[in-house]
Amino acid sequence: MIAVQASPYPYFLPPASTALVVIDMQRDFIEPGGFGDALGNDVSRLAAIIPTVAQLLALFRARGWPVIHTREAHLPDLSDCPPAKIARGSAATRIGQAGPMGRLLVRGEPGNQIVPDLAPLAGEMVVDKPGKGMFWATGLHEALQVKGITHLVFAGVTTEVCVQTSMREGNDRGYECLLITDATESYFAEYKAATISMITAQGGIVGWAAPLAALEQAVSS
Ligand code: TIU
User: Fold this and answer.
1) Which of 28, 37, 81, 129 is catalytic?
2) What angle do CA 124, 129, 134 make, to 5 degrees?
3) Which of 1, 6, 2 lies closest to 212, judged by CA?
4) What's residue 195's pLDDT?
């Protein structure tokens, strides 16, 4: 077990059964012209964490620990997207509409790909998810059970939407979840801070939180 100094108390990481989950580091959320931009957000906030996420990926890859990438992605016919989800936002900026990087949040479109600096390597799992959470309609829980994964380390965007939803889904399925605080970001600074607070409150009701430096220090000592 590796003891990581975390909030609200140390997180014990078993190297053989821990996976890194990088949530939705896609052009659609991080670059101008994507879905996040279409919703009226300042996407530059999210681009700023790319180097930290790359450093976290390097830590896992160097040790041969499993890495999972997710993408929020719908089938081209949107048959996996509930009408209630499509209907959010103005008509021109809805899921499936054409933007400068292709159709918003649609599988296979340029904007739906993970940013080049964080591109998945061969052998790393890439999960296309139709929801905000990574367990809904993906089969991921079964895949993780086959691999014997019990602990999940989280990074990615956005903290209070897809990261928090995935972490809560994981917590309910029995995974011990650690959020790397400088490897996640929100379009709203106050929502990121509130999410970290609510995850770690009440004795870690959803899980743990720690900066990347704490994880690096723990694995190197
Ligand atoms: N809008 C927003 O903050 N997030 C999303 O729509 N998806 C993810 O968080 N990936």
Assistant:
1) 129
2) 75
3) 6
4) 98
